[in-house]
Automatic annotation (TrEMBL):
Annotated protein name in UniProt: FAD-dependent oxidoreductase
Domain FAD/NAD(P)-binding, first and last residues per copy: 4-116
Domain Flavocytochrome c sulphide dehydrogenase flavin-binding: 325-392
Lineage top rank: taxon: Bacteria
SUPFAM superfamilies: FAD/NAD(P)-binding domain, FAD/NAD-linked reductases, dimerisation (C-terminal) domain
Alphabetical list of InterPro entries matching this protein: FAD/NAD-bd_sf, FAD/NAD-binding_dom, FAD/NAD-linked_Rdtase_dimer_sf, FCSD_central, FlavoCytC_S_DH_flav-bd, FlavoCytC_S_DH_flav-bd_sf, SQRD, TAT_signal
Residues in Sulfide dehydrogenase [flavocytochrome c] flavoprotein chain central domain copies: 134-249
Transmembrane segments: none
Keyword set includes ATP-binding: no
Originating organism: Bradyrhizobium diversitatis
Entry keyword Flavoprotein: yes
């Protein structure tokens, strides 16, 4: 064999990487370790919450990866021995590697938001990992009486998909306007400004009038603790007891990154942006949300681009060649109502220890005819078809 590569995490980053490795060199032994038999996609899960789409449209399996010659192991990675270059899974099996790729996504910071834990998430869902949480939030919206308040608590950056909480606010408002028009969406935000703010605020006004209210950081919007027993959200300036509480907590790299020793004090993983190799542990590469990407927003688009670029670097490293500096492109669509979307496209290149945005990016114009918004909503659907086909086959 041309080498053994183990990939941990079968999300957008891990699947893109595993497939690109196998495509680049069929002799590579590629193993993908992922505990879930079905992946549930976060992109477009806000549509599920708003009742515009069924969860089945979000689900993808790993059969096509197996058919491509990738060994798919339905276990969680539980330990990594960087000296012996070995990953152990929950059933005790050990997998040796020449290079290890970690794409575990995010986990929540247990101390960052006092009172918010697994149990609290059963009544105050985050829905920041798609699946049961997505459906729970949808059911809570369906059960809420007309005239109720839905609060969305948004953390500071870095966090997974910075525009997605605002997309969610719009789509929830769409549901409420259609089914429960006296209701409100209250955004409690740990940020003062956010990506594509003018586009979002203009769309909210145009589509939903005063239905969406946002309390920014400087107005006391940062959530400081949660009392799950009374379903209370505590902010710097006051307490809120909304009918539905969607609490998106502060995040860090998926737990296994800490176990592997590749996460630093920020909770994220510093990497060499040319090879995605960890700055802390040799022969371990980190891609996707878990990595410290600098200017590159944490998105499925970025994770899959990083997966492919990381695969190319690993193939070169295994062959004793010098990897080339990658140029990554990412595009993020936000849909604020059916047929109303906009986008943000960026290009990124290594600069020092991080990725920096370079020329060639584009954002949808603030003043644009509805026809363009409709076209971008269609393009968003096409993007989803393409990226899921690319990653899962
Ligand atoms: P993930 O896709 O989360 O995959 C991580 C995988 O690792 C999981 O399958 C997990 O089970 C597995 N794993 C974790 N620990 C272990 C372990 N110990 N052993 C084995 N496996 C493990 N991005 C976009 O580009 N466009 C969008 O429109 C968009 N919309 C979004 C909407 C919402 C509501 C949210 C929350 C996110 C959205 N995103 C979007 C962001 C996107 O979902 C993430 O950036 C992307 O999933 C990151 O890919 P990843 O591979 O890093 O992590």
């Amino acid at each position: 064999s041309a080498g053994r590569v183990v990939v941990v995490g079968g999300g957008f980053g891990g699947t893109a990487c595993a497939r690109a490795l196998k495509r680049a060199d069929a002799r590579l032994q590629v193993t993908l370790i992922e505990p879930n038999k079905t992946y549930v996609s976060c992109p477009f899960s806000n549509e599920v919450i708003a009742g515009l789409r069924e969860i089945e449209a979000q689900q993808f399996g790993y059969d096509r990866l197996a058919a491509a010659g990738i060994t798919v192991v339905a276990q969680a990675a539980t330990a990594i021995d960087a000296q012996k270059r070995r990953v152990t899974t929950s059933d005790g099996t050990a997998f040796g590697y020449d290079r290890l790729v970690l794409s575990p996504g995010i986990d929540f910071h247990p101390e960052a938001l006092p009172g918010y834990d697994e149990v609290a998430s059963e009544t105050m869902p985050h829905a920041w990992k798609a699946g049961a949480q997505t459906l729970l939030l949808r059911r809570q919206l369906e059960a809420m009486p007309d005239g109720g308040t839905v609060a969305i608590a948004i953390p500071a950056n870095p966090s997974r998909c910075p525009p997605a909480p605002y997309e969610r606010a719009g789509l929830i408002a769409h549901y409420l306007k259609t089914k429960k028009p006296r209701s409100k969406v209250l955004i409690l935000d740990a940020k003062d400004t956010f990506s594509q703010q003018r586009l979002f605020e203009q769309a909210w006004k145009e589509l939903y009038g005063d239905m969406i209210e946002r309390v920014a950081l400087s107005q006391g919007g940062r959530v400081t603790s949660i009392d799950a027993a009374t379903k209370t959200i505590v902010t710097e300036f006051g307490n809120y007891t909304p009918d539905v509480a969607n609490v998106i907590p502060p995040q860090r790299a998926g737990r296994i990154a800490g176990v592997a020793g590749v996460a630093d004090a920020t909770g994220w993983c510093p990497i060499d942006p040319v090879t995605f190799e960890s700055k802390l542990v040799p022969n371990v590469h980190v891609i996707g949300d878990a990595s410290l990407g600098g200017g590159i927003p944490k998105s499925a688009s970025a994770a899959s681009a990083q997966g492919k670029a990381g695969a190319a670097a690993i193939v070169n490293l295994l062959a004793g060649r010098t990897p080339e500096a990658p140029r990554l492109t990412g595009v993020c669509y936000s849909t604020v109502a059916p047929g109303y979307g906009f986008s943000l496209a960026g290009n990124y290149q290594p600069r020092g220890d991080i990725f920096a945005e370079v020329e060639g990016g584009a954002t949808s114009p603030v003043d644009a005819p509805r026809e363009l918004r409709a076209r971008e909503a269609t393009e968003a659907e096409r993007w989803f078809q393409a990226i899921t086909a690319d990653c899962f086959g």
